[in-house]
Each structure stands twice: as C-alpha cells, then as structure tokens.
Amino acid sequence: MTPFHIPYLSGNESKYIQEVIDNGTHFSGDGLFGKRCTEFLENLTKTKALLTPSCTAALEMAALLLDVQPGDEVIMSPFTFSSTANAFELRGAKVVYCDIRPDTLNIDETLIQGLITDRTKVIVPMHYGGVGCNMSMILEIARSNGLFVVEDAAQCINSFQDGKHLGSIGDIGCISFHETKNIHCGEGGAILINNRDLLERAEVIREKGTNRSKFLRGEIPFYKKIDVGSSYLMSEINAAFLWAQLRQLNEATDQRLLVWNNYLEFFTNEFSEMEFSTGCVGHNGHIFWVIDNGLSHEKMHYALGHYQLLSDCDPNSVAYKTKNICRLSLESKNQMLVFEAFMKANTK
How far are the Cα atoms of 17, 18, 53, 241, 302 from residue 21, in angstroms, in the given order? Predict the structure, then answer.
C-alpha cells in the first residue's frame, strides 16, 4: 500500500548537506545555502524574504512585528491549523473567527467587515490548499479600516493570484517548508515582508532582538540588543536541503498538478453533485479535497481528514461541513484506489 504522502526528494539533498559538512565553518543561519534560498524566494515572490525554522515561527514573528497586544482582535477562519491562532493568542490577542466560502473553504471576505470592532488590528487570510483568498477585497477592507493583513500562505509555495505570489500581497506573508508541503526541508519556513516599514524591525526580531544583521553587512562596528526577539533563523543544514528542493520547484509543482487535474476530471465527470476542489488559475495543486459524508473508513490509507475546527461553529455554517472533509492522496500510485473506492460506493 502506497502511503498517503511521501515527502518529495529531488535527489541532491545529501550532496548539498555534505558540502556544508565538508566546509565545516558555518552551520547556523544565513550561510551560503541560506543566502541562495533567500535570493531564490525573493526572485520568485518579488518581495523581501527571511528564512525561518518553520511557518509557525514566521507567524509568531508577524505577531511580534505588528506589536499585537492583549485585547487586540485578530480575524481569521476557524478552518486552519492551530499555529495560525496560537501566534496571536501568545501575544494576548482575542481571535475572532469568520465563516468560510463553500467553493474554496477560504475565509468569506463578505463577512469580515461585520466582525470589525475598534479593537481589531489584523486580518489573517489562510489560503487553503494553495488557492488564494479574495485578496483584493480583503486589502480594501483592511486599508479602509486601518488594519494589517498577514497572509497564512503555509501551503502556497509556487501559488499565484493575478500574477502575484501568495504571501506577497498583504503586509506580511508566511510560507511553510514542512515535509507535508510540495517542497520542504523537514521543518522550515519563510516570512515575506511586503510592508517595507516593517523590514528593519523584522531583521532585529529574527536575530534575538539584536541589530546583528546590520553588523554582518558591515553597516555597524558592533551589534547589541535593541528590541525584543527570538531565534528565528533556519539552520544551514536545513537550507542546504531546501536548496536542493527549490531548484526542482517547477518539476515538483507539475507532479502535484498532474494528479490534481486527474482528480478534477474524475469528479467533474462522475460526481458533479459532490462538493470538491475546483482550484483556480495559478494554484499549486497542494490539496484535492472532497466533502464526504460516509467514505472515510473505506479510504483510510489514501484519504485523510484535515484541520479540526478551532472553534465551535453553528451547524448551519459552511465551516461546520468541513468535519466531513477528505483530502485525497496526491501520490500517483493511489489515484486508481481513490477512483475505485468512489465508484464502488456509488453503486451501493
């Protein structure tokens, strides 16, 4: 039985990790491979990128960077990973949950305005499965109310909306390189700083609250603590692994999209009455989902549920329906198992 997910490997991970070991002089963050990865991401996203140990760390950085305080309110979908909420709750913020759209399972942008109060500080659109939220409307709402926008683009490497990489549209974007993503380094992430007013402080927070980044660039003779912060750098070993994967990004994306499009054709032709992924122009094929009321036990090896809702939802809400969601394996060897299971169940 093919596992639900096999982490992608390019074949060059060991080679680049060995180069770090053989060099023997730099194993912490922002070494040669870290700089290569950063340059690649900045060329891809057309914005400033900083590598982090995880997307969770990037989200926590974002909350620090925006000076989120106790009592502030942050609007997000309840259908997201716990890290999205944790990052802001750790700063004392109140998370306000907004229902989602039935077509994308992303936050319903038409409901956001009604949740804004004088305590609201941030809107956090999470782009589910690499399919973008309605960023033009979300940005319009944010700007008219003086709010920040932090994109949880964990699943969005190589996903675009209107020609812009997801994560590069709001004030801050957070990307994951966890092993469950299209490409990865085991554990890793990146924070994208699109609001240039935030860049200098982002470097300080990432370097334990010091101005060490300026020191390393030769801009100051010594560095010192000037703000709060933590250790938010990706190690050089992880960066070497990631570099091997980034070089094969388009190939990895194409592999996902091939299987994803096969599923789309199958469900469109055979189960058009069901609710399932429809994607969008520029998505990366990260997840194909189906709202399934009775097949999970038959597909346990190649279909899984996803996020448990972060709050109790009205049974009439769209978010409540995700309790019956199934993510289908995007391993090519599992496609026929999925097709056969759905066809078999449909004949009962």
Answer: 6, 5, 19, 12, 37
Q: Quick check: do 13-246 and 249-346 share a fold?
A: no
What's the CATH number for 249-346? 3.90.1150.10
Cα 182-153-85 angle, rounded to 5 deg: 120
For 80-135, write each residue's pLDDT tens digit. 999 999 999 999 999 999 999 999 999 999 999 999 999 999 999 999 999 999 99
Domain residue ranges of the chain, discontinuous segments joined by + = 13-246, 249-346
133 exposure class (CB count in 10 Å sphere: 0-12, 13-18, 19+): buried
Q: Which amino acid is at 318?
A: V
Check if the beta carbon of residue 56 is closer than 8 Å to that of residue 230.
Answer: no
- Span 212-263, pLDDT tens digits: 999 999 999 999 999 999 999 999 999 999 999 999 999 999 999 999 999 9
CB atoms within 10 A of CB 53: 20
Residue with tokens 């122009």: 281
Residue 297 main-chain phi, psi, to 5 deg: -65, -25
- pTM above threshold 0.85: yes
- Tell me the DSSP string of 103-127: TT-SB-GGGTGGG--TTEEEEE-B-
- Domain 13-246 indexed as CATH 3.30.300.330: no
Cα 335 from Cα 331, distance rounded (Å): 7
Cα–Cα nearest to 130, from 109, 147, 148, 154: 154
Bridge partners of residue 304, in order along the sequence: 327
N-terminal to C-terminal alpha carbon distance within the chain = 25
278 close to 264: Cβ distance less than 8 angstroms: yes
